[in-house]
Amino acid sequence: MGCEKMIPGYMGKILKVDLIKRKIESFSLDAKDAKDFIGGSGLGAKFLHEYTDAKINAFDSENALIFMTGPLAATKAFSGDRFEVVTKSPLTNCYAEASCGGQWGGMLKRTGYDGIIITGKSNSPVYLHINNEHVDIVDAGELWGKDTFQTNQILKNNISKDIEIACIGQGGENLVRFAGIHTQDIHSRMAARAGVGAVMGSKKLKAIAVFGDNKPPIFDEEGFQKFWKEYSKKVASTFDAKDMRDNGTVGSLLYCETVGDLPIKNWSMRRFAGAENISGSAVKEILTKKYYCGSCLVGCGRTVNVPDGRFMTNGPVGGMEYETVAMVGSNLLINDIKAVSKINELCNRFGIDTISTGSVLAMAMECHENNLLSTDDLDGIDLKWGDADAVIEILHKIAHREGIGNLLAEGTRRIASEIGSYAAEFAVHVKGLELPAHDPRAKNSLAISYATSNRGACHLSAFGYDFEHLCSSPELGVPEPLDRFETKGKPAYVARMENIMSMCDSLSTCKFMLFCAISLPQLVQELELITGFGLDVGDFLKTGERIFNLKRMYNNKCGISRKDDTLPPRILNLKRGTGADEDQLPPLNIMLEEYYKLRGWNEIGFVSLEKIKELGLERFLK
Amino acid sequence: MGCEKMIPGYMGKILKVDLIKRKIESFSLDAKDAKDFIGGSGLGAKFLHEYTDAKINAFDSENALIFMTGPLAATKAFSGDRFEVVTKSPLTNCYAEASCGGQWGGMLKRTGYDGIIITGKSNSPVYLHINNEHVDIVDAGELWGKDTFQTNQILKNNISKDIEIACIGQGGENLVRFAGIHTQDIHSRMAARAGVGAVMGSKKLKAIAVFGDNKPPIFDEEGFQKFWKEYSKKVASTFDAKDMRDNGTVGSLLYCETVGDLPIKNWSMRRFAGAENISGSAVKEILTKKYYCGSCLVGCGRTVNVPDGRFMTNGPVGGMEYETVAMVGSNLLINDIKAVSKINELCNRFGIDTISTGSVLAMAMECHENNLLSTDDLDGIDLKWGDADAVIEILHKIAHREGIGNLLAEGTRRIASEIGSYAAEFAVHVKGLELPAHDPRAKNSLAISYATSNRGACHLSAFGYDFEHLCSSPELGVPEPLDRFETKGKPAYVARMENIMSMCDSLSTCKFMLFCAISLPQLVQELELITGFGLDVGDFLKTGERIFNLKRMYNNKCGISRKDDTLPPRILNLKRGTGADEDQLPPLNIMLEEYYKLRGWNEIGFVSLEKIKELGLERFLK
What we know:
The structure is a homodimer. By secondary structure, chain A is an alpha+beta fold.
């Protein structure tokens, strides 16, 4: 690698694999692209524009499946070893990204590639084996049909314990539209959302096994080491880091229930008597270990073990995130943490998104309750609220597209359209992506961010709900916690947070760092020490704005417009009670109007030509 | 007819025609049904429940096409000769009704039948000939392909000048989903909305020719005559009657433009420089005559003549209503009243609804402007805003489903789904029925009534927009004009008005009477004198509530629920400017919440069992 090509913070090469031609090549990363789009989903979105016509079907051979790390990966920058998967989504028919922690991202970068662009479809199951810069397409006949835990184990047995594996389970193989891509063995870190695993399945790509021992160049090695030393203690010892280490993300469940942020019975109820039974303290009873992603000093991951009973795990398995416990727990009226743990384990094994799965199951239960899906339609399963055994039966069917599972594997939007009648009342999604476990009726900023997030209903695209109510962060421009039911200022708040989070997803780093001493100025400093891009806070935010709009432009090409920037009827219309905050509904349209103006989008939600020029994105207009 | 069977105000018999079996029969009207559902669309909705499974396709042979008069018809009660057509709509896939003035309704009732229920499909074109109680199904081969004016003329020539004819034009024949049923020769009164003409076309029923010289019994003949004498002068001489007689409904166009009620450029603009050119005074320049429907003392109908030029009419033709001028004038940026007159004439000849037609054309123009429909897609027609010649070319194609017309004949909802992408931004409908020419951004009550009207976006289902802002009517419970941008009290106001209007559509009488001395107490009195039902104002409103909910129950069976009670994105989201009332958006969800409670509907918009029992509608649950 000649010095003139070196880009600090990057390996400088992108791997490109065409599975139909079995062609493996690589190309140099352009230094200006690196500065303009950073990495992760920023560069991913750029490549998606270039490699995937917005008009195609997500399962077409032409769809590109893009795995990208960022400049922080493999540098020991705090929680910077994440990777992003970018593709056209089979769930939303528009831009998809899914982010994943664990160790795989850091290991991919150490192979010498910043990312992989996969196009074409193989005729038979294969996996990719990347050993430093050496790449093989290998037959995966024996892996096909195996779950993600089994796939990990077989590949490690066959190749080496030192490899890291990203793979799909039966969900991805069977094109379940909300299948994800799973990593980390039993610890289950997953690029879960928007059906990226189904695209991988459509390409008959079972896994990507990576091993590398390269290191990226760092712009100011000495400065970075100093920075790391100074901040590593701070990161580990902040209140929030300790809280997450002690309680995991599920530690917030009771708070969420208190303020009305928790989904209960498919988003129809305000209080859940069983909340205590699925809270952080309930998880503690089956906890065996904490789990740290690559370069993480927090350790919010859990490992749990249920040694006996009908929800017995076979040894320790990855523990439950808040989103999972809420979506397959309270949202289904399941109040047994062991049952939730089993459902979580199965979703991980099958490689399907727990958020969408929970939403699909809740919709199926409500359709059943309202005679839109009979017990016969459900293959004889009387799918009642709170019935974990019935849920487990259905889960197997979804992952294998058997019987009713073939319909449920389509996601809530398509289920509604297939069942017809008033089933759409029970489909809780935006743009086809099911809502994660935070309720816009509890916090106004969520209404705007769900409506405008590029991949559909996403809580991480703006990630503003905690700063809106619970925390303050002068560094992020929130000196005091905000009034959650105020509308004024919220559009600007959400747009700014979306720009910041676009940067986090491009870096790509864990957003929890923002609570743990690595706030905006530190992130900018960290990036500067690693890359020497010379970006100040203003440039950093502008780059985030560029990336957010680049994704929106892809969506516009897919036909996404203002009509799609909305919320499900249930969230817009249904009050969950009377009095206190129970009758709150999000005043979306008023806020959206202002948001569009701030964004520089035209009246139907297309990025305006002026804004495109200002951000230097003309070439993506096509 | 034995005295024991006589129901004052009614002929007491319903004609039933099965076109596939060619079976003609009749049955006696039940006296309790008459009291509970009155007539018009009230009895029509009852028969629809009984004869048409909500699950069928509107074009299935099983769909019933129901023509109903009310107890006022053929009695000389003020403007009581209207009739209603009730069916399952091919445009909305749910409950449809369309109301029509003219003379046909009064004449139908004089045949001895209060209404007609038509089921089945003929194999070849036929028309019905009803001469008093004698009914024939007659071959209509020579009529098929003829426009409505021609069909009228041929049938009158062949049968008698004294018959009244309801028929379809090429629009209905070709299953244009917004085709109507036309009456009154060149004067063009039409049961226009929701595709009732397409259902008639699907049955290959070209026309219904009626003649009769019977009279319905009247409960208190003497009292009724006295009432009529007392009120006839008042009706004719009220300010509103004189205004409508002088200016027609189009007389309100400039007022509508002033307050932001007028649709301009597919509902995207707030001001129209050409308004003056298509206003009431512009119509006066081509006016030849005023037209009075049966038993009307107002005469708001117009007849116009354009003697020369490229928009020349062939002799006098029915003049333009406000809705028409707005939807095919300002909404298309056409500012030439002669062009509007020609478009109106063609719609009447083809037998297609001018409201939906205008909305479809505006959508096509905006799709063209935004490259979603190329000139090639449009069969070489460069369909630009304001281009009346291009509109006229397209109109022929729609009526005959030729080329692009085959797509446009499907209505805005289906056009959007066919074109995909962001075309739905330009589709301005509720439940598939295109918005009439009143803007919910100008008056909050319209937001609720468009969202909840049983046939989709309808201005007449609540007909509250004038009383909301312009007029007061203590009799209707509006002692002072209301603040149009207030939300408080609006749900109750709309629900009450919907109940009243349900009665008007059942009686079935012209709603303009409410401005012209025949307000609520007089209507109740008139009905009582004719029928002796013994209903007071409270019973009258309760009956209206029963009928409104009976229709909603049919919609619920069709799968209509809260998800469908919404407004198009353009109306919910798009501000038409900044300042004054230009940035007003209707706060629908807040109002809808209260409306549901007042209606006794459950959280997903189904009529609750309690309400169904209260109204005695259990038997329609099925």
